[in-house]
Amino acid sequence: MERIGLIGAGRAGTALGAAMAAAGHPLVGVTARSDASRERAARLLPAVPVLSADEVTRSADVVLVAVPDDLIQQVAQTLPLTDTQYVVHLSGAHGLAPLAGLAATPVALHPSMTFTGSPVELTRVMFTATAPHAARPLVERIVKAVGAQVQWVADEQRSRYHAGLVHGANHLTTLITQAVAVLREAGVADPEATLRPLVTATLDNTLRSGHHALTGPIARGDVETVAAHLSVLRGRTARTYAELAHATVELATADGRLDAETARRLTDVLDGHRAHRTGEAPR
Q1: What is the CATH number of domain 160-276?
Q2: What is the crossing angle of helices 223-232 and 260-276, to 10°?
């Protein structure tokens, strides 16, 4: 198996490095500059020596540049890479541009997973890769060795790919946080327990069935309920609700659940809220 060198001991890099080591890939070394990085490397990669970046690079067949996105190009340019090596970054936002001009074969390999600094199970994780055709066998071997799956995205589509992940995952946190606050204001003692089964079921159903999982007042055409919601919500939460409601009206109309007249009435209510929200106190 290929020898792996790890540049950076962040949460994603050490978790992936530990999974690769467990799968039989020899890890020749890891760089760790901060106290937190050294502690993480010692905990997740106890048998892997902490070396300089040059030492790690010269010993590896595959060099994983596991550093923050805005440092990938800067760090990679300093490494003594050769044309017999592969250089891999783990950013979702970037394609091959940060690795352009390097001697090694470039690979962008992003696991769609949140890493916490603890060991992770990768068997259900999808890795999204961008690489020259010649690198595909290597990428598939590495990903499959850790029990995960790999898919391919064109270099020019990396930003769109990452936008989809951020919109679905990061903005979900914003949405749930706002919903918890509204429930708490309504006097609900345990908002999280109230939302958990509903949100969990909705997420599972949506990932399985797409727009067919849509339920609620807009899918039912309940204009009065939507108007009542907008009358009690405030500030940014009201604006978020209204914008998502607009998108939901479009979705329910497109799949035939809303007739044109009901869709128009819902849109009028939502547009009326937009027109009168100027001057609201911030939430």
Answers
A1: 1.10.1040
A2: 10
